[in-house]
Specification:
280 residues, alpha/beta, seven-stranded antiparallel β-sheet, three-stranded parallel β-sheet, 12 strands
Length: 280
């Protein structure tokens, strides 16, 4: 499996759930969704008391990118890495004010949650303004909604969530694309909403939260971050997908790819949110 991305998440999940050793030596490309997804799969293993061996990609470019995105800071929590200290000749230069990426950032209950959300806000604002040319009003609206999504992880999940962002240039479209991945292994949409709403399955739970602003909260204005993100992404012709439990629901513009509704997937806890935003 040469790529680890949103498109190959189901294959990655199937591959990691079976053997005690996971061989990713053939991987040639990984994006924020792939990295965050691997860590969240590891989080599930950790809860179950399992620590598997993960053979790292042989590609030095992939290793350099994993290091630049701080993947190794967290991967050793969940996996026995082989090699344990990968040799990287020329590491990417780092900047605390990068406008092309947000390193993988944990979202967990701690005193520094406001700092974490502030970091996501600041970096996302720089990326969207510089490379997608969104105006400040649009960016601020999106940042508020994204911050609520991060805050929801704190409220809904007793485990660690992660967020990662990266800017890419799509040659065939001659435009910049920003990929945003936000994931957790918490209770998921169905359990969260079931206290207030009668639901048939995971897909209905995701659809209600995304399209109808359903929330576990009775008070007005709570829990509607996802609906606000969806409106923003649709307004700016982006792609938005949410996976939870055994279902995935996506809003797909003409330029993007994928399936709108997916059911009967491998059961996986929490919520996996992926956003693709296109340069205007």
């Amino acid at each position: 499996m040469p790529h680890i991305t949103e498109d190959t998440f189901e294959q990655t999940l199937g591959r990691l759930m079976k053997p005690s050793e996971i061989d990713f030596r053939d991987v040639k490309f990984i994006d924020p969704c792939g990295m965050v997804g691997l860590l969240e799969i590891g989080e599930v293993f950790k809860i179950e008391g399992i620590k598997k061996t993960l053979y790292l990609p042989e590609s030095e470019e992939v290793l350099k990118y994993l290091e630049r995105m701080d993947f190794f800071r967290f991967a050793s929590r969940y996996f026995r890495l082989k090699p344990s200290e990968p040799q990287i000749s020329d590491k990417y230069l780092r900047s605390s004010y990068s406008d092309v990426l947000l390193e993988i950032t944990p979202i967990e209950k701690s005193d520094d949650i406001h700092f974490i959300v502030g970091k996501v806000k600041d970096r996302a604002h720089a990326i969207l303004a510089t490379h997608l040319h969104y105006d400040n009003r649009a960016i601020n609206g999106f940042i508020v909604a994204l911050s609520e999504v991060c805050q929801n992880i704190i409220e809904h999940s007793e485990t660690t969530g992660y967020v990662g962002i990266q800017k890419y240039h799509f040659q065939n479209m001659r435009k910049n694309i920003v990929k945003i991945a936000v994931m957790d292994t918490g209770v998921g949409f169905r359990k969260s909403l079931s206290e207030r709403v009668s639901l048939r399955d995971d897909h209905e739970a995701v659809e209600r939260a995304l399209l109808h602003g359903a929330s576990r909260y009775a008070d007005e204005g709570r829990g509607h971050g996802l609906a606000a993100v969806r409106r923003f992404v649709s307004q700016w012709n982006g792609k938005f997908s949410i996976r939870s439990g055994t279902a995935k629901f996506s809003i797909i513009p003409e330029w993007a790819w994928g399936r709108e509704k997916e059911r009967n997937l491998i059961s996986f806890p929490g919520a996996q949110i992926n956003i693709l935003l296109l340069e205007i």
